[in-house]
TrEMBL record:
Species lineage: Bacteria, Bacillati, Actinomycetota, Actinomycetes, Kitasatosporales
PANTHER family in the cross-refs: IRON(III) DICITRATE-BINDING PROTEIN, VITAMIN B12-BINDING PROTEIN
Keywords of the record: Signal
Family of this protein: Belongs to the bacterial solute-binding protein 8 family.
Name this polypeptide is given: ABC transporter substrate-binding protein
Fe/B12 periplasmic-binding domain residues: 58-337
Signal peptide: 1-22
InterPro entries in the cross-refs: ABC_Transporter_SBP, ABC_transptr_periplasmic_BD
SUPFAM superfamilies associated with the record: Helical backbone' metal receptor
């Protein structure tokens, strides 16, 4: 992942520092002034009530966005480690780099039961398709049998429309829900509330500058035979909308899912946003899109309007507001051209 531009770093850094105008309490200060961290706490997670007798002290997380939610709340000292593939880019330029320096990198793949038990974890924070998966037997129910509770990323909550479809609320609401829940669980409610307020303000500032005519946007994650993209319930939906665009797959009632190229052609996006991660580079993805014959007549391809965001920008994470700002700037230039 490319290091963010200075302005974007400043925007994102408001969640962890006072240098760009935010004024948030430290996790240490929050714990010293709030008793909730040491009392039983009941949360609603994916529609289910879960109760913790006390705040977990050895949390393990799966994937970059989930891990950075913990870091943004200053909860490094409550973590026993994280799992994350090493294709998530350069982490040295992120506002909460200290978290990566302090917390153990347990695996460069997804979490396993062995990781969890070796770390003596007392909470697993992951999501469906962000660590939790039936095929490997790594599920909240399986962990419960081992005596380890779980918290499921709200963006990934299953919605019952199919066995695997995900998403129960708008993506930014999912982000705010998780920050609120984590704040309550760890006794850092003030810090969580400040983060949410900062995010709302940043996003409102972008929205106030949005173009009058909203460009149609398609999110391209990967895939050549069929594209993997974002429906209504994944973070790109509101990243695109709040930036001033329209997600052409808004009617798909799922988070991340596969569609057909014919539906992309029919919806004729003005802009394609590439999700940058994995073994296939953003430049290779762009080259494929520009050379793929069925897309030849699509406006975004004809005008070479392709914008790149990093993986962590496009999953539920504290980097979502910065992604909205950067995409908003680009969409404004598209609308004015």
């Amino acid at each position: 992942m490319r290091k963010l531009l200075a302005a974007a770093l400043c925007l994102a850094a408001t969640v962890t520092a006072t240098g760009c105008g935010a004024n948030v309490e430290s996790a240490k200060d929050a714990k010293s002034t709030s008793g909730s961290a040491e009392k039983a706490v009941t949360l609603t997670n994916c529609g289910q009530k879960i109760t913790f007798d006390k705040a977990p002290e050895r949390v393990v997380t799966n994937d970059v966005g989930i891990t950075e939610l913990m870091f943004a709340l200053g909860l490094e000292d409550r973590m026993a480690g994280f799992a994350m593939p090493d294709d998530k880019g350069d982490l040295s330029g992120v506002p909460w780099k200290d978290g990566y320096d302090k917390v153990k990198w347990l695996s460069k793949d997804q979490l396993t039961k062995e990781n969890v038990l070796d770390a003596n974890a007392d909470l697993v924070f992951a999501g469906w398709n962000y660590g939790f998966r039936e095929d490997a037997g790594f599920t909240p129910d399986a962990l419960k049998k081992l005596g380890v509770p779980s918290y499921i990323l709200t963006e990934s909550c299953r919605n019952g429309r199919s066995e695997t479809s995900r998403g129960i609320m708008p993506p930014l609401d999912a982000l705010y829900t998780d920050l609120t829940n984590l704040g309550k669980l760890f006794g850092v409610e003030k810090r969580a509330a400040t983060l949410i307020a900062d995010f709302r303000k940043q996003i409102a500032d972008v929205r106030s500058e949005a173009p009058a005519k909203s460009p149609r946007v398609f999110l391209y994650d990967s895939g050549q035979d069929q594209p993997f993209t974002s429906g209504r319930f994944a973070a790109p939906e509101q990243i695109i909308t709040e930036a001033g665009g329209v997600n052409v797959m808004h009617d798909v009632e799922d988070s991340w899912t596969t569609v057909g190229w014919e539906s992309v052609v029919q919806r004729d996006p003005d802009v394609i946003v590439i999700c940058d991660y994995g073994d296939v580079t953003a430049e290779q993805k762009k080259k494929f899109l520009l050379s793929y014959a069925p897309l030849r007549g699509v406006s975004a391809i004809k005008n070479k309007r392709i914008f790149v965001l990093d993986y962590v920008d496009l999953v539920e994470s504290p980097r979502n507001p910065s992604a909205i700002a950067r995409l908003g700037t680009y969409l404004k230039t598209v609308s004015e051209s």
